[in-house]
């Protein structure tokens, strides 16, 4: 199993343990910091402000916020968070969207984005993908970033900033 796949699976497990998949954290656990993946970056130039956090749905078909929203004005350049291949450029419902396949089952979707890349094109971390378009589910002024690992939505923060992981403590603490 490749190191990237092991990291993806570890992050999925951490997301579940910390409630990022809607499963809730275990009682009797404490958080320690996990380093971010050095191969990932924010899809916007700094400073980056998170407008809405990840909120995992209880089931695949339940309501939730399957990503994070970043404050960004229309026309702001959108950058590839990590290396990959553009797997989709198009409109979903009424929003322009770009999806990048980073391998090992990891897909990143960004919207609304007016793409300057094409499907099948390889992209490098930090390479421009396009610019923030008007509209989107949060109205004016945001970029939605979603990450799926083998089809399951996970918090993008697991890759960009690192997530705290659960540490079991002895009973009675």
Automatic annotation (TrEMBL):
Organism domain of life: Bacteria
GO molecular function, one term: hydrolase activity
One protein family per Pfam: Peptidase_M23
Keyword Lyase: no
The entry's keywords: Hydrolase, Signal
SUPFAM superfamilies per UniProt: Duplicated hybrid motif (SSF51261)
Cleavable signal peptide: 1-30
Gene3D superfamilies the UniProt entry points to: Glucose Permease (Domain IIA)
EC number: 3.4.-.-
Domain M23ase beta-sheet core, residue spans: 64-156
UniProt keyword annotation of Hydrolase present: yes
Enzyme class (EC, first level): hydrolase
InterPro entries the UniProt entry points to: Cell_wall_metabolism_enzyme, Dup_hybrid_motif, M23ase_b-sheet_dom
This protein's name: M23 family metallopeptidase
Origin species: Leifsonia stereocauli
